[in-house]
Structures are given as structure tokens and as C-alpha cells.
Specification:
Length: 116
Amino acid sequence: MIRTTFDAAIEELEPGVLLVRLSGEIDIATTDFASESIRAAVAPPARLVLIDVSDVTFCSSAGLGNLVEARNLAGEHNITLALVGVGRPIDRPLEVTGLGAQFRIFATVPEALAQL
């Protein structure tokens, strides 16, 4: 049996502004949990959703699918979406696939809040 670790937490920073903290491995074994967390956050009445991936240690194609799903949901609901704390486990797959240009990316939550 293969075990992967993953966790997600949603925090409301202020009315309409949500922070989704993802941590651990986002892969085929955890993609459903990641999707549930994203769908819970990227929905009205949210107007801004930040996805903090600074504690993600691995991101498979399934994990990239979760981020694309978040982007698509945000577009459908006219919600601003940004990724925060993008390190190598997320940056490399985004770069290789060309998806990086499709996301607003910030180093920190305060930076994202100041600019959005």
C-alpha cells in the first residue's frame, strides 16, 4: 500500500477573501480531496481566492488538473484567483506544461493581498 500525505485548509481572511492552504503531495491518491477543497472555496460569495502551495512537496499531472479546475471555476464565477508560495514542486510542472502564464503568482499572501 502506498501512502501519500496531503492536507487542505480554508481560511476566510476577510469577507469574500479566502485562503486555501494545500500541503503535502497532490497526486492521483489525493486529487479528489484537493478538488473538494478547491470547489468549496472557489464559489460565490468569494471574490478573491488565494491558493497557498508553499507546503506542497509534490504535484503530479492530477495536481495540475486541480489548479486548472480552480482557474476555470474562478473564471465561471468571476472570482480573482492567485497562487501563492510557488516553489519547485509546483513551478516546474507549471513551467514544463506552459500553464504558469495562466495564473497570477505571488511570493507571499501579504504581497498578493496588496496587489489584488
